[in-house]
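Go through this:
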Amino acid sequence: MKIKQIQITCIGGIDDLSLSFDDQMNIISGPNGIGKTTILESVAHAFSGYESTLLKRAVRSEGGKVTSFIDVGDGQIEETSYQITEFSPRRHENTNSINHYVKQLISLKIARTIDYSALDAVQRDATRDPHGTAWSNKNGVNLSEVKSWFVNRYLYSPHPGALSAERIYNFEKAKTFFHY
């Protein structure tokens, strides 16, 4: 599953933006205040319904809209849209997104590094219900859980049958995204 395109209208500082994403890697860059975080938050909200106070409509608009186009496999594109009418940072808004894909996104937010911390033991991967996963998508995953995930894959990957083919693939792919 991959996000193929997103259209953002009157959200934060973005008046009207349509982005198409590459299947492999996408880099969003630009000066401060241009809307890079708004783009990332808009993607996260497409996979994370429930209430949020992160995205706000543009000040000069009555409301904003985000439409996402997601390749769910076999050439099928699923479209999802949500409205943002709130401007106050204290008011919650429900984005009613595609919650059935909530576990398909990992949102790391602004933390750039995983600080050293001793591991007392190898821990199981964190398990969450869809609401907890949606919360992580909006607020960022706990970096100690990311560290634990890597440690588990590193320790178990050399042992045949310890990890499924999908987990081994995800581990190898994840290693390409981080410098270690």
